[in-house]
Amino acid sequence: MAEAADIPRTGPSAARRWLGRGAALLAGTALLGGLLHLPAAQAAPVPQAPATDAQARTAQPVSVSLDSFSPAAPVEGDRLTITGTVTNQSKRAITDAHVGLRVGPVLNGRSAIDHAARRDGFSPGADGLEIDEEYAQEIDSLAAGRSLPFRLSVPVDDLDLDGNGIYQLGVSLSGKTAAQPYEQVQGIERTFLPWQPKAAGGQTSLTMLWPLISTPHLTAETDTDEEQTPIFEDDNLAAELAPGGRLERMVALGRELDITWIVDPDLLASVDAMRDGYRVRNADGSTRPGGEQGRKLATDWLAAVESAVAGKKIVALPYGDPDIASIAHRGKNVSGSLGRLKDATDVAASTVETILHVKPSTDFSWPVEGAVTPSIIDVATSAGARNVIARSDSMREAGSLTYTPSAARPIGGGTTAVVADDRLSTLFQGDMTKAGNATLAVQRFVAQTLMTTLQDEGNERSLVVAPQRMPTASQARTMAEALEALDDERWSTPQNLTAAAKADPDARATARVPGNGSYPEALRKQELRKAAFEEIKETQDKLDRFKVILTNQDRVVPPFGRAVDREMSTSWRGLPKEAEQFRSVVSRYLNQLIGSVQLIEKSEAKLSGHSATIPVTVQNNLLQGVDKLVLRLESSKPTRLKIGEGRYQDQPVKVSGGHSQSVKFTTTANANGPVPVWAQLYTEDGRAYGAPIRFDVNVTEFTPTVMLVLAGGVLLLVLAGFRMYTQRKRQARELEAEQGGAPGDPGPGTADEGPDVDGGPGQPGDHGPDTAPESPAPSGPGETVDR
């Protein structure tokens, strides 16, 4: 942001004051110069006084920590109290020392605050003079490596503050060492004193986002009981809900503040799942009960959240807090990714409303660190967002504005970029367990908000603070202290996020979204890879194919759908191995469920007849029934073995949970020998389900026993034929003898019939056929198939 002229004002009294302080400084320098001319016996040689501030900065032998600063924004009549610790980091003792307070100049802009906070070492011109010595704390000696506490208490009226503004304050330890036996500053720490005793011409509206977000703790796996008890990958969520835990502190602190809650519905749903009982996975893969303590923590925390958000603005992110930027850069070209994001947005409102009984706003998108590009905006709006929370270090001001503009920026297409202030949003990211860090963060926060108001008094603007997504307990405490330090009656007033998004935009503020190439490389390296989205698509496709056979889809579809949402979570940034492991767990469990409905392997079947039935068994190990499945049995050689009326036959399958069912197929054999057949399950829409099984049907239509019976029958027929022939010959001879004819002559009045070769009627003494003609009908029930 351009701040070439972001000077709130410098009054005449301040100028006169600094002329006086400059004179005092010159006098001190002259006195030091006189000391330099003392004889060697009286004073050791010392270097020349530094000519510039830069040359004066030296390594500080003493570390000064400011552990408390109260009040953070004093008014007339207050008493300023500063406590802290001084630590001698050198190898020499420091003697004749004291801790004093220095009032520096009025700072002339937000950049000046940043510069003062970054400066190292002591600079006489910039750090000012100590106030009256009566407010200093004497320290006779500070040994090497030793720390001592201090406490300074000064009436604000004695600080000689000239007018509204941000004053630099320095707390320094001055003393002597054996090597430098004259008093000099051994260490200093700077902070800021915001000074506006009374309300000025205008106020800045301040929106603080208060995120309730956590990492994924649930996959899709549940216990095998009827209640589907959820299984947590660890018990870390219970630790966050416990007294003093991160999430417990976020709620306890936030309930007393004027903030906008920004919530991941997945966190609420996960805690809600704990209330009714849960299990935790052990390292060896087994599970253990979560315990009554975890259930109580979950119940108490959700009750506290419901109470805390009552009457406050609550914004629900898409379920699982999906990584918008990763989807825009890596996932949008993978089929189904945008649809998954839209579904996560749709389910967010119902989840929050069901658990907290409040209706949230769902038209906000929050990309990581507020970094935006046109592709990120497109993805966010495709899921229903009309407001995108950006940050001012992404949407930088290109003009010559001398003030910080309001957050709302219309960027086209009915979309508003709500630009959070990057200075305020990043203030609480450090280690706030150290009191010194927390104190400095609070004072910088209060100073920056006042400086923003003073930049252009009378021009009321809206500031938005979007901190890190998952503040620690100490960071949350520091954020709360910073908000509590603001006085609603002076330079700021609270505002919710929806109001900030609808505020009148500043026509001079930038509304240009930076190009796709501007996305920070450090953030791009943390994104989910395209391969991750392809794995997510594969899991979703499997789920879509699986759900169509279920008689109770609600036991499977919602848990897996939400698990897929978690696979796109922003919390996986910078954790590629952990993200891959999570996806693997979800996919493996889905495969396990799909494999619970399967065909039972079959050994060779022997067919000892012209036709028979072949059973194929379908096993369902799920807790619910399956339907809308088709089992196909197919012959690889239909000319030798028909299934049904041709190559294959389909039969519907419906199996109750925990049961098996045998499906019988009619077969017809036309030749002996083994014939490979395949059994495959299909869904009703024709998609193969599970792996096929192969087995051989060995056709043995004529067995050895049958052949013996047939051979015996043929022998009997031959013998019977021979007997008939001999009987006919004897009868013919007898008839010829009776008639007196010549042997071999035909009888009178008869024709020579010859052998019966035309299939005409047989002789009266002929026997009937031994076997009936072969029937084409299926074999009778006596035929069996051996597995």
UniProtKB/TrEMBL annotation:
Keyword Transmembrane helix listed: yes
Annotated keywords: Membrane, Transmembrane, Transmembrane helix
Keyword Ubl conjugation tagged: no
Transmembrane segments: 702-722
UniProt signal peptide: none
Coiled-coil annotated spans: none
InterPro entries named in the record: DUF6049 (IPR046112), TAT_signal (IPR006311)
Organism superkingdom: Bacteria
Pfam families: DUF6049
UniProt region (Disordered), positions on chain: 499-521, 733-787
Name the record gives this protein: Secreted protein
Organism: Streptomyces rutgersensis
Phylogenetic placement of the source organism: Bacteria, Bacillati, Actinomycetota, Actinomycetes, Kitasatosporales
